[in-house]
Amino acid sequence: MKQAVPSVKLLINGEFVESHSQQWRDIINPATQEVLARVPMATAGEVEAAVASAKTAFASWKKTPIGSRARIFLKYQQLIREHMKELAALLTAEQGKTLADAEGDIFRGLEVVEHAASIGNLQLGEYAENVAGGVDTYTVQQPLGVCAGITPFNFPAMIPLWMFPMAIATGNTFVLKPSEQDPMVTMRLVELALQAGIPAGVLNVVHGGEAVVNAICDHPDIKAISFVGSSRVGTHVYHRASLAGKRVQCMMGAKNHAIVLPDANKEQALNQLTGAAFGAAGQRCMALSVAVLVGEARSWIPDLVAKAKSLRVGAGKDNPDLGPLISCAARERVSSLINQGVAEGAVLELDGREVQVDGYPDGNFVGPSIFSGVSTDMAIYQQEIFGPVLCLLAVDTLEEAIAIINANPNGNGTAIFTQSGAAARRFQEDIDVGQVGINVPIPVPVPLFSFTGSRGSKLGDLGPYGKQVILFYTQTKTVTSRWFDDEASSGKVHTTISLR
Questions:
Q1: Are residues 146 and 223 in contact, defined by beta-carbon separation less than 8 angstroms?
Q2: b (16+ CB within 10 A) / e for 319-343
Q3: Residue 285 known to be catalytic
Q4: Alpha carbon distance 132, 499 (integer Å)
Q5: Dist CA 231 CA 252 (whole Å)
Q6: Which of 470, 461, 462, 463 is nearest to 116 (CA)?
Q7: Would 472 disulfide with which of 16, 193, 421, 462, CB 3.0-4.6 Å?
Q8: Catalytic entry in 217, 285, 328, 391
Q9: What are the chain's domains?
Q10: pTM higher than 0.85, yes or no?
């Protein structure tokens, strides 16, 4: 008899509740095709209940002292640390990434939780005394109300932890919609957040697809939405939610380039390029999917291929170098793009389409794949492959390499490998990309700074953490005050705008 699988719950008003939905989706281990659980596509009524719960909770939560909110996140980061191994195993089972990478996923989110615990220092207003006769002016940063987050499959721990801790720490309440492909680790993190002391209604969770996303975009009680995911969905969310009067930040797709100059430390550059291209099976928006080899650096291709060949592909729980892709559909898409690259004339230096993993015949595996001879009009260059595929372009000068990157519509991240300070400075100044690495392959900033992808990779002005997120999750209120003593109050009436 077929064994029943558990169902993923909704979180509404502090209670984990079973959905009444008639639509459910299986959560599948991408290494084995085992069904781990099933997740509901929440009903319209369930989304409404989650938002209503958050709206009710906001009335008291916004008045909760900053120190009290901070102490919850101090406790929360402790609980995440204590459950790190458990969380990583759960993440690996449903998402596929290696155990080491899963811990990295959680840790980068944990850094934001730690920052949330001290966010009060960034929520300070401004004050000026006696700006006019007896008039003082000051500002306060007040929370917006109910906020929402829509998160992707590739970082089911880190990106939810980018969102709800910052929103809640600044006094808002939150409705989270995790990826329906791998929500289990997200829900375990939510359980720990409640254990840390987040009150009922302050954090709510609904699951679903397009209908739930649209409901979040349209709901009049949701004031701000943070999104991370594909450019197609992110563009839809940004325009639909903006038309509904909401603040929106969308971190979307990318085509990240690394320039490799011939003066770079060869061994370090090749190691970092290999790790950044193929780590997480290429399923990250900051993956280095294009390397622009300048001058004699093009002779390094055989060495790069050799390093990529040495990487071990396997089930995430066995802690190889890279695990499977998230789904059968993802594997088919990546393989199809590799086929298209061959058809368009690129040279397939390393082919990962037929990789075999002992003991896992049904896994969604694609091994490291490298194309040389790539041109900018090819599909493998123009599309975000989101798999372990590296495209190599060759040019003669740094200026040509910079021009290629600046002509690409995306602007999430870029890097240069060089030992020349002059070349690095020219690159930093001339490149039109939001996040720049100098001998750093994946330049995602720590939470003291903001995530600053640009151009086609981001819609909205403000980043999801760091100083910028305070402006996103708060409204600046300016107060101008004057206090009169009894003698001053008997002055004459003024009909002009001047305060003097």
A1: yes
A2: ebbbbbbbbeebbebbbebbeebee
A3: yes
A4: 6
A5: 5
A6: 470
A7: 462
A8: 285
A9: 10-252+466-479 (3.40.605.10), 256-438 (3.40.309.10)
A10: yes
